[in-house]
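Minutes, methods subgroup
Present: GH (chair), OT, SY

1. OT presented the first of two proteins processed in the latest run. Sequence and structure tokens recorded below as shown on screen.
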Amino acid sequence: MVCMGNICRSPTAEVVLRAKAQARGIELVVDSAGTENYHIGDPPDARSIHHARLRGYDLTPLRARQISDRDFAAFDVILAADAANLREITRRCPVEHRAKLALFLGTEPLPDPYYGEAADFEKVLDLVEKRVDLLLASWWS
């Protein structure tokens, strides 16, 4: 999962996907990154940590990183939070790996809660949980 800073949406999606896959006995290598470099090494946003914890997810071990060239070869699927991040990873991605790129929600952006309220972080969790369930069902039907 890729968002801008790798402190809200993408770490949330990473942890939810990992947890839901493990609960189904599915082994996946899951990671997240940002398109920008201004939060490298930082933990996820405290509000993301708090709201995820309320649902049983632990974001505290994660640290922000920027997407790297090796990610395009290393991962089978790379999902962007929104169109701006999809454009940026498409720009950076070698042509032979572009088929791996898509929007996380399929056709809609995953809203950025960073400048929002508690309800915005809850909405992101709702959308991520629902989409992860759909992705896992489609990948392992």
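2. SY then presented the second protein from the same run.
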Amino acid sequence: MSIYATLWKLKFPKEGDEHLDCEWIEVTAQAVPPHVGSPTPGNGYENGDPFAAFLPPALETNSDGEAPHNRAVVFVTEYTLKGTERSGQEYASPLLVLAGEEYSRITFEELHRRICDALRGNRSPVVAEVFLPDGTHKIIRGRNEK
């Protein structure tokens, strides 16, 4: 059984920047409910949190396994592999992992920027696209300020 529950799926520019001819990729937001790994008695993790190595800290919950926020939200693409030597539940290369509380407070603008930055990797961001008289176009990238 998976520890993840899909929140949403959206298309993003595959390499982090929108421009003519860019490819798009689906990004999925996967929530980890608050009871997963919770130290609260009755949630089944009295012997420890098996997900502590790759998720934000476990949450205290009420007796029904509920808390104000999810434990985490993990952002993945179809190319993100699930299952590592450490855990079959771990994504090998998620784009981004946020604590549930952080996810509930982040603006969409900031979340979009962070996902695009992760998709872009070490490439500098696109700052301009020049359309030439012959019908071709040129991408201009800025400095990478990471």
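Chair's summary of item 2: Helices lie at 100-105, 108-120.
Next meeting: continue with the remaining queue.
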